[in-house]
User: What shape does this take?
Amino acid sequence: MASEEELFANIDALLEEEPQLPPPAERARLREAAGITQARLAAALKTTTQTVKNYENGRSEPKSPRLEAYQRLLKGWAAKYPAHGTPAAPAPAAPVAPAAAPQPVTPETFTGPAAPEATAPAPVEGPAAPERPARPAGRPATSRRPAAKKATKPAVDPRFPHGPLAVLDGDGSAYGVDGIVLDCPATTIPELVEWTLRESGLGAPKLNRYGKDSDPLIVLTAAAAVKLGLPGRLEGHEQRRSLRLPEDHPVVKQVTKAKWQLTQRGFGPWARIYRKAQGRERQCVQLAILSWDALDERSWPGVSDMEPADIARVLGVYAQRVITPRGSTAVSGLELMTALRPPTKPERDEETGNWISAYNPGSLGTEPMDPAPPEATPEHPVVVQSGWTGGFLNEEAYQWVRSVDSLSDEECMMPFAVGLDLNTAFLAAASRLVVGLSAPDHFHAPKFNPKIPGSWLVDLSHIELDPRLPSPFTPDGSRPTGPAWYQTHTVAYAQELGYDVHPIEAYLRRETGAYLDPWHDRLKNAYVDTLADLGVTKDLDDRQFLAAMEQHKQVDPALAAVLAAIKATVKGGVGKLRERPQGRHYKEGERWPALERPTWRPDIRAAVISKARVNMHRKLNNMAKMTGLFPLAVLSDCVVYPSPGASPLDFLPYAASGKPQPGGFRLGPTPGLAKLEGVQPMLWAVELMEKGLNPARHIKGGDAVLEDGE
Assistant: This one.
């Protein structure tokens, strides 16, 4: 690195005075007033042009001795080129997320090496200097739906003035958040990528000080896709989400010829186009093609059929409250974990004094970790290659139907079967959940410790509970028949019920932490805030809450779609922690791509589901003690009770003061509290139970079990 004397000599060639460092916008004004280019200034400061750009947009600050040299230069320019009485522009306001605040270039802006695909190279910065000419204005965004009342918006990052994403239509109009419409002249995919990175001003700041900024997202309507040379639909025998353009397709050739790259997933509904990072400068754009079913109807109900401006609003709210979508909601849920807990952080090397990439405590690190054999899936290499036959964890969500023979005459005479659904039950389970961060160690005959996350081989078959309740130890609610593997929360609940447990063996982790806490907090806030925008607020009493929930989807279909996407992000993200192999050509015992992610962690998935199932049983048990009521069926986070009336208020326990009794089911908009899922005649429920069918599944309208894929 150049000495302070050498730097001063270079600067003295431009001017001679010693200054204070002005705000970023003023630095750019002074340099332009002096007629000096960023490249020339970079050469004088012995740094890069990008670093000078960072100084002028507030992203980073110079360090000594470069700081003193830069101060000397700016003060001299300020004396020669005063602002004519106009005060210097203030520094750009920091976004709400603390990670987005301007940080010094070292160590805070250090992001560590980019991993292939999962951390594909990231974006160049959007326009930052306020002096740049404004983007050409397109026609105003129009919508067939009246604008809804807008929630408080976070501060705008000056690097990304036009928000995180845009929806491109066939006429070149790119609809962004808050009604912004940009003119996009691109006629090919490479041109679109260049425009997005150089001209659009799209992107989003990082969610953690050690993380990476979110790459800009361009959503293509069917008309825009055709205009850019893409087929209107992808056809083939595979599921549409698995389809990709062939490598000899003209668009793929265009991308390659322009020296851009595609990730290993190829050009599918969610295409990621990038070039290798130059230093800290990312060059990456995410595309989503609507007509290729990029927005799954189950996660984004009705969104694909909306007008472009409304699609931009839905995705924009999701991006601001959760994360800029990078694929399915399952993929986004997993990416959010990493964005909030980056695997690395900068650390100074004591020997060289340089900043290096080091492990970020509390994260899952950069390397994949093999599970213990009982935590793996039967096709996993650790199982196949070791010949493991010792059984597997079976921590799954409830799918239980009560025996019809156990119904009393009084229950059968009840007029209604009422379904209660716990709001984002798996998200509630992730709160303050301690999970393992290191590799598993094997122990024989260990003493059980409820504070240590892991898998325990223990016999719980001696525990006898009321048969009118599902067993808390198995997904189907049946009583265990012998030793089996359980996650820590399941075994701890057996202790809570008053039974001794004596593990035979265990796979435990020494390093632990609440890895999912920031993920829980961000998604909880997104869920609660979106419900509040739909009129379902925390200050409502139970009757008002039920009335508001009955109408909330009609208040604003766009925000209702955001709410559905948030819920899908929770379940999909947890499910992705144990993604199974996909494709017809997979052979048992081979590694599959998901195993190369540090976030392939079936033990963490098991911990979330175990805690959620235990929480459900605890409520069921308390309800039986307080009210004498027993459920008819449970499906994941939905439970069906016989009821004398068509409302949960007719059977939920309330104190004389009118307040809900603690320990049972409570109504409310917060994760873990309940809402009315549906009402059917009791006779209907009994007929289903006699056929071995689950009334909860039919009331809920579908399966709520966590999937192991997208």
Remarks:
- Residues 602-627 form the longest helix (26 residues).
- Residues 55 and 61 are 6 Å apart (CA to CA).
- The radius of gyration is 29 Å.
